[in-house]
Automatic annotation (TrEMBL):
Organism listed in the record: Araneus ventricosus
Coiled coil region boundaries: none
GO cellular component: extracellular space
Pfam family, one: Fibrinogen_C
PANTHER family (alphabetical): FIBRINOGEN/TENASCIN/ANGIOPOEITIN
Gene3D superfamilies (UniProt xref): Gamma Fibrinogen, chain A, domain 1
InterPro entries: Fibrinogen-like_C, Fibrinogen_a/b/g_C_1, Fibrinogen_a/b/g_C_dom, Fibrinogen_C-term_domain
Domain Fibrinogen C-terminal: 1-126
Name of the protein in its database record: Fibrinogen C-terminal domain-containing protein
Amino acid sequence: NENIRVLCEKGCKIRFDMRAENGEKGFAIYQNFYLSSSYAIHINDYSGDTGDAMRYQNKYAFSTKDKGNTEKAQRLKGGWWYEDSTVFCHLNGVYEPGTNDAQTVNWYPWREHENLASVEIKVKPK
């Protein structure tokens, strides 16, 4: 996270390329992305065909099982920018093919909690 924070201090674009288990592909692009203190994510200006899942993570600090929103990180078995209420995406989740659960790698507006087959995240400085 520190390398990404430093890389994007002056702002970056970020792209998420996803593939569902049935082979369907989708993407999300955010024109404005950076990490601030406590690795809080700042992300907006969405375009794509998967839905704007990251808007719910906007301005949340990165949490792990021992820092931040620890209860959610423990329950969902991975570090992420967890919002207080629900899980709209979890790209650092458990990879469990054939499942539909918030603990898995998922992007809710596109495939709900269906486990995704793959995700690539690409960051580009402006």
